[in-house]
Amino acid sequence: MNIYRIIHFITDLSTGGAQVSLFRLLKQLDRERFSQSVVCLYNGDGLIAEQIRSLGIPVIDLNMSNKLRLDAFWRFYRLLQEQQPLILHTWMFHANIPGRVLGRIAGIPVIISSERTMRQEGKFRQLSNRYTASLSDRIVCVSVNVAKYTEQTIHLPPEKLVVIPNGVDRNDYRNLPSKAEARRLFQLPDSALIIGAIGRMHRVKGLNILLSAFAQLAERRGSVHLLFVGEGSVRQTLIDQTHDFGLNSKVTFLAFQKDIPKLLPALDLFVSASLHEGMPNAVLEAMAAGLPVVATDVGGTPEVVQDGQTGFLVPPGEFEALAISIDKLLEDPDLRCRMGKEGKERVARYFSIEQMSQQYEQLYEQLLVEKGGQK
Known about the structure:
The protein is of the alpha/beta class. It folds into two domains: about 5-165 and about 350-370, 3-Layer(aba) Sandwich (Rossmann fold); about 170-350, Glycogen Phosphorylase B (Rossmann fold, 3-Layer(aba) Sandwich), CATH 3.40.50.2000. It is built from 14 helices and 13 strands. It has helices at about 15-30, 45-55, 70-85, 95-105, 125-130, 145-155, 180-185, 205-220, 235-245, 260-265, 280-290, 320-330, 335-350, 355-370, and strands at about 5-10, 35-40, 60, 85-90, 110-115, 140, 160-165, 195-200, 225-230, 250-255, 270, 295, 310-315. A seven-stranded parallel sheet has the order 3-2-1-4-5-6-7, with helices on both faces. Helix 4 (about 95-105) runs parallel beside helix 5 (about 125-130).
């Protein structure tokens, strides 16, 4: 059996949704059929890079320290010429565009790019995406709504679009600690009802809206606590707002955690207040751990969270609607249990890492046959 070389090209290897999904795919793909390496423009020494290297997969950092370091693209082109992979798979916007162009110049047989977000692109990004899309053989969208947006708003060719949702490794959610053990491990309150929000602390995640909703809840509920986990540009602003609300004793901030599955049992429910989403890994992970979810009805989120069954969906940007739905779950432990159970079953059925990797393998093989690269 032939082994087919793949280069995965990504903007950076900080901790984010695309990076986590890449790592999960690398871990799952059949090593007897695919030889893989990862190239990033910068930040090739972070946690995700360390995890990828632990799999025995090389990571090459092009050291693009600023936007003017165009020599990074020359190094990438030379790398493509030297390694001559059969497949170049690009993962984020700043990798998609140069990957398409340089991949074609270098004669790479199969080029696959990715669409992982929606409603976050300026006009320049949309145009550069549109005018280079023909250089890709396929464009993977992480949700049906992302695919619709990509076709209707960015005007990418529909025949090139394929939907492959993110997947969760269910093995990470076996033998988790009890609620009490998880709270002791992360030094969280023993008896409070804990609301959790985990992920990159960026404006688009709507965490300030969640904090406003929590402030409203905290006025009438004494035993409620909010946990923020992550790093990012709005972290200090959230800390300052927590102080202004007088909620320092009811809000905990934790830095990014390596082992999120061990933390999730400490929570009573999970909240995603994002203004825009492609396919939220954090929501999938919370559901895999059996947590009910309150999330905004944006992007691919309603393809994951079934309103009234595995959680509640609310309009983005409306903290009062968010507070009402959170309060419904806080009020009813049986509802939390039922929604958490149904959410866990839904992730296992539709959003497993096995399903995601199988769909990618099928796509790789299909395109290799089409391009004559499979012998």
